[in-house]
Amino acid sequence: MNQKVREVVEFENHFSEFLKKQPVKVQNKIFKIIEAIETLERVPSNYLKMLVGTNGLYEARIQLGSDIWRVFCFFDHGKLVILLNGFTKKTQKTPKNEIEKALQLMQRYNDTKKK
Q1: Residues 6+ positions from 113 with CB-CB distance below 8 Å
Q2: pTM recorded for the entire structure
């Protein structure tokens, strides 16, 4: 078992709701990506990519055959990765409403933490 360099947790239950709807093969692939995020010092950008102009929002990238999924996340104090919402990617560009949702969740997380 690889040594963890960071912890991956989910905020609220958007990620697990998304995960439950996916076929087992996809779930396994998502877990592999999460494991890579937890254990690799430098996560390759084909797994985890920062979205430009979003103030630290990342997307974990999952691909199986020609199908693509994205799970939004962000870092909290560098070592904790907070999973937000996920979706099946059908278009070239990441849909704005999915990014908006993730940014709102990120804001809510930060607000909750301040309390």
Answers
A1: 76
A2: 0.91
Residue pointed to by tokens 């989910």: 10
Our CA angle for 40, 41, 43, nearest 5°, is 60
CA distance 82 to 34: 11
pLDDT of residue 1: 62
Q: For residue 45, give the amino acid letter.
A: S
Structure tokens that stand for 81 in this block: 């990765």
Evaluate whether 19 touches 86 at the Cβ level (below 8 Å).
Answer: yes
> What is the CA 40 to chain-centroid distance, rounded?
15
List CB contacts of 65: < 8 A, sequence separation 6 or more: none
Handedness of CA 5, 35, 52, 42 (dihedral sign): positive
CA–CA distance from 80 to each of 20, 71, 90, 96 (Å)? Answer: 23, 15, 29, 25
